[in-house]
Amino acid sequence: MADDSVTVLSMVSARLERAGFDVVTVGRGDEALRLIEELHPRIVLLDVDMPGMDGLEVTRRVRGDEELASTIVVLLTAHTAESEIEDGFAAGADAYLTKPFSPQELETKVSELLGHR
């Protein structure tokens, strides 16, 4: 999970860890990409607006890397305009959740994307 908000990182990681997921957090897009390349996670949660590299660019780079192309990408953002949502999906996101979102909604979406019920 990558987000420049410590509050969001804390809330999301606590909720997903309670649900049994292993969570690694970072606050910058470039750090997120480095860890994605290193760890090859099944799913990543990315804020769109982050220092170092935005979530859209991280998503594009993940999609452009043959070894990472199957990684599930969820964008979490306050950007709600239709064009911004379209940009997220055009970059390769599998899901797009707008802030504020409920922790339950996020947990349900992550479980659904990973094929858990």
Structural class category: alpha/beta
If you compute it from the alpha carbons, what radius of gyration comes out, rounded to the nearest whole angstrom?
13 Å
Residue ranges: pLDDT <50 for 5 or more in a row?
A: none
In the residues, how many domains can be counted? 1
So how many helices? 5
Instruction: Name the CATH homologous superfamily.
Output: Response regulator
Order of SSEs, N→C? HHEHEHEH
Mean pLDDT: 94
Q: How many strands appear in the DSSP assignment? A: 3
* Overall 3D shape: globular
Report the CATH architecture: 3-Layer(aba) Sandwich
Largest sheet: 3 strands, parallel
Span of the ends, CA to CA: 21 Å
Q: Quaternary state, please?
A: single chain
CATH C-level category = Alpha Beta
Helix content: 40-55%
* Order of adjacent strands in the largest pleated sheet: 1-2-3
CATH topology: Rossmann fold
**Proportion of beta-strand residues:** 5-15%
Tell me what the structure shows.
This protein is of the alpha/beta class and 117 residues long. It has one domain: Rossmann fold. It has 5 helices and 3 strands. It has a 3-stranded parallel β-sheet with strand order 1-2-3, with helices on both faces. α1 crosses α5 and α2 packs parallel to α3. The radius of gyration is 13 Å and the shape is globular. It starts with 5 loop residues before the first helix and ends with a helix.
Features:
117 residues, alpha/beta, Rossmann fold, three-stranded parallel beta sheet, 3 strands, 47% helix, globular
